[in-house]
Amino acid sequence: MEEELWFTLFTLARMGAQSKSLEISSTKLGKKMNISQQTASRRLQQLEEKGWLTREITRRGQFVRLTDQGMNVLLEIYLWLQTIFDKKPPVLIIEGELFSGMREGGYYISVDGYKKQFKEKLGFEPYPGTLNLRLKSYSDLQAKKMLQKHPGIMIEQFENKGRTFGAVKMFKASINEKVEGAVLLIQRTHYGEDVLEVVAPEYLREKLSLKDGDKIRLRISLT
Fold first, then answer.
1. Which residues contact 172 (CB under 8 A, 6 or more apart)?
2. Residues 123 and 66 reside in one and the same domain
3. For 118-164, how does the pLDDT look when each residue is reduced to its tens digit (9 = 90+)?
4. Domain assignment of residue 10, given as a range
5. What is the CATH number of the domain that holds 48?
6. In terms of pTM, does the model score above 0.85?
7. CATH code at 109?
8. Helix or strand or coil: residue 188?
């Protein structure tokens, strides 16, 4: 049953429902998928109940659009397919704009519980600070959602002096094709979904002569 819903979601995305409200009747969908009108109607209802699409019925017809949750389902399937078919190690390319953050990264990276795990799992001790990138394009924002779906390298939660420090997911990455570092997905963060934090063994602003507003290209390994 779940696979049938995935394929229906994929069909609607191919028809344009991932980026706009798509006018479609259950009869038209049924013909497109070679299923009955009743089955198509039932699948649209199930997709709506799961929160994978929104549906509006007006005098002009029925309009559907995939939600962020529905797009995440397709992104997860894409990752599975990429793992099956790619002969090369799967990578993501993300670009972001450098901005000055809240300057909390240096403190957290210097905490022994984090620092020790960074060295064990990344093979280097990060410079005490993070490079903060704001994602602007739709494709880059979607790529970050793909990272959130992928297991990555985990820094485990720990306690220090009665304080709990949250888990961090990491991915090894090349910064501007010049410096090897890592992208961090932090559970507890003040930043929104449009921000990525990057660490490296060197002070990246100085090493790469960076300033706020510069475009940074990340080549992120998913293995």
1. 122, 153, 180, 181, 182, 220, 221
2. no
3. 999 999 999 988 999 999 988 788 888 888 888 899 998 888 878 88
4. 2-73
5. 1.10.10.10
6. no
7. 2.40.30.30
8. coil
